[in-house]
Specification:
The protein is mostly helical. It has one domain (about 15-104). Helix content is about 50%, strand content about 0%. Helix 2 packs across helix 3. The longest helix has 25 residues, at about 80-104. The termini are far apart.
Length: about 100
């Protein structure tokens, strides 16, 4: 499985490229900005690596178009658990961003 940031709906987006290589989309989470998407992605990746103890699963050779460092063994964490982690992280990230904006 893979987590990542992508523009949805354009023919040459990373998401479209991965689909052409056989990847299937489980869920997408729209964000307001690319920065917000990046913060969510980085937090989820950190949690998977440090809290769950997971390392990337595929290699550069498996994914020549990039993204291999964001792959994980599907037997290590379920899609549902990963999605719950994304939603929880997005909620926490949005709360932090909102507090930061209010303090400015």
């Amino acid at each position: 499985m893979k987590i990542g940031i992508a523009t949805v709906g354009t023919p040459n987006s990373r998401l479209a490229v991965h689909r052409r290589f056989g990847w299937q989309v489980f869920r997408t989470l729209p964000t307001t900005t690319g920065d917000e998407a990046w913060r969510i992605e980085q937090s989820v990746l950190h949690q998977l690596r440090h809290d769950f103890g997971l390392n990337h699963y595929l290699t550069r050779e498996h994914m020549p178009k990039g993204g291999w460092t964001e792959t994980f063994d599907a037997d290590s964490v379920s899609l549902l658990r990963l999605w719950q982690l994304v939603l929880h992280t997005a909620s926490a990230t949005a709360s932090v961003a909102h507090r930061d904006e209010a303090a400015s």
